[in-house]
């Protein structure tokens, strides 16, 4: 049975000019819409009390489990406004299903896919005026789930809340789609075998913060993590990585300790549709280094919901620079990026039926 959502409208929504100011220059992750969705779960009663209510601070007991043991998962997705004013989202079923996989790993309850999709739809419907138009702006949607049981014992919480908040968003990186340099983390790993690397949980991102600080101190936009052995590529601090060979083949790490990116899967599918070969397999750092040196690797890019596709100009570390930090975006990355965004904004065919109108 699917949940019914109760709606309590925000009686003090942002003034039109304040909202317009945000939509004109949204930045990333700083401004939030007038409403939020919450659904509660208890071990005895299951999912209940689905509601859309005014956006605002949560009241939480300081002994809530999430504050101590980080039992939390989240998703990232976007709503896009097309030139005709209609609002669409991209493969929301993929986010719903990934959240179920993350929930399983973090011992959280699985929200049925239909309820996840309806929660997102309800929020976008009530806050439709917050979906930006023009450019590459969108309404970033952040579903998340927290363990809110008041208990300090270390075990899976018996009470949980699922929420969705929304934030008008421009480019994730300050420089827009300009190619970035990334920093190779040699001393820190993101995840280990059997860990939570494939789950979208806050802890993975917390673990990336110090290495990311070190990357930024080196003038890089993101950090690249290797596997535990220090040989194979894993992923960046908050997005996947793909290399492009001179023969057009795309290669990307296949590892059970990285996030199964919806954007990455979609870009690789579009690439295959366009006749590129795609290889999902372990990719060594040596392969990248040697490939750049002998010209057989011509491009690299980062991809994720927030970052879309961002070309990687160079990989830097204490002892080497792979690539040219001033290199412009390559043709494959540029074409794939345009194809994906054209599809998302309704300017191109959607051969796989990925777009869902809200
Ligand atoms: C996303 O791409 O949506 C993420 O969740 C990653 C984060 C860097 C914003």
TrEMBL record:
Q: List the Gene Ontology MF annotations in alphabetical order.
A: branched-chain-amino-acid transaminase activity
List keywords of the entry alphabetically. Answer: Amino-acid biosynthesis, Aminotransferase, Branched-chain amino acid biosynthesis, Pyridoxal phosphate, Transferase
InterPro entries in the record, alphabetically?
A: Aminotrans_IV, Aminotransferase-like, B_amino_transII, BCAT-like_C, BCAT-like_N, BCAT_family
**Record PTM N6-(pyridoxal phosphate)lysine, positions in chain:** 200
**EC number(s) on record?**
2.6.1.42
Cofactors demanded by this protein: pyridoxal 5'-phosphate
Any Gene Ontology biological process: amino acid biosynthetic process
Listed pathway(s): Amino-acid biosynthesis; L-isoleucine biosynthesis; L-isoleucine from 2-oxobutanoate: step 4/4; Amino-acid biosynthesis; L-leucine biosynthesis; L-leucine from 3-methyl-2-oxobutanoate: step 4/4; Amino-acid biosynthesis; L-valine biosynthesis; L-valine from pyruvate: step 4/4
Q: Does the keyword Amino-acid biosynthesis apply?
A: yes
* Keyword Membrane attributed: no
Q: Give the top-rank taxon of the lineage listed in the UniProt record for this protein.
A: Bacteria
SUPFAM superfamilies according to UniProt: D-aminoacid aminotransferase-like PLP-dependent enzymes
Q: Which reaction does it catalyse?
A: L-isoleucine + 2-oxoglutarate = (S)-3-methyl-2-oxopentanoate + L-glutamate; L-valine + 2-oxoglutarate = 3-methyl-2-oxobutanoate + L-glutamate; L-leucine + 2-oxoglutarate = 4-methyl-2-oxopentanoate + L-glutamate
Could you tell me which NCBIfam families the record lists for this protein?
A: ilvE_II, PRK13357.1
Give the family per the record.
Answer: Belongs to the class-IV pyridoxal-phosphate-dependent aminotransferase family.
Q: Could you identify this protein by its name?
A: branched-chain-amino-acid transaminase
What organism does this protein naturally occur in? Agrococcus baldri
């Amino acid at each position: 049975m699917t949940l019914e959502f109760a709606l309590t409208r925000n009686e003090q929504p942002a003034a039109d000019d304040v909202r317009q100011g945000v939509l004109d220059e949204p930045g990333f992750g700083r401004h939030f819409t007038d409403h939020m969705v919450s659904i509660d779960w208890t071990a005895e009663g299951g999912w209940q009390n689905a509601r859309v209510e005014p956006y605002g601070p949560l009241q939480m007991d300081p002994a809530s489990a999430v504050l101590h043991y980080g039992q939390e998962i989240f998703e990232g997705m976007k709503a896009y406004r097309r030139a005709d004013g209609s609002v669409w989202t991209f493969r929301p079923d993929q986010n719903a299903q990934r959240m179920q996989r993350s929930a399983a790993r973090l011992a959280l309850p699985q929200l049925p896919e239909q309820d996840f999709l309806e929660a997102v739809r309800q929020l976008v419907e009530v806050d439709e005026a917050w979906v930006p138009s023009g450019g590459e702006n969108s309404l970033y949607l952040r579903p998340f789930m927290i363990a809110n049981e008041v208990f300090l014992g270390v075990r899976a919480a018996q009470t949980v809340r699922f929420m969705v908040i929304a934030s008008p968003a421009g480019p994730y990186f300050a420089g827009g789609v300009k190619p970035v340099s990334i920093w190779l983390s040699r001393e820190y790993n993101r995840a280990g075998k059997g860990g939570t690397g494939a789950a979208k949980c806050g802890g993975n991102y917390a673990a990336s913060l110090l290495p990311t600080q070190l990357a930024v101190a080196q003038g890089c936009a993101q950090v690249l993590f290797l596997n535990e052995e220090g040989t194979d590529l894993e992923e960046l601090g908050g997005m996947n990585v793909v290399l492009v060979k001179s023969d057009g083949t795309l290669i990307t790490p296949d590892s059970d300790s990285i996030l199964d990116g919806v954007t990455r899967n979609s870009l690789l599918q579009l690439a295959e549709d366009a006749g590129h070969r795609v290889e999902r397999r372990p990719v060594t750092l040596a392969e990248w280094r040697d490939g750049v040196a002998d010209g057989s690797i011509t491009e690299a890019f980062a991809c994720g919901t927030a970052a879309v596709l961002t070309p990687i100009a160079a990989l830097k570390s204490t002892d080497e620079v792979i690539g040219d930090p001033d290199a412009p975006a390559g043709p494959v990355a540029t074409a794939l990026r345009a194809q994906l965004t054209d599809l998302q904004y309704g300017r191109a065919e959607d051969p796989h039926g990925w777009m869902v109108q809200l």
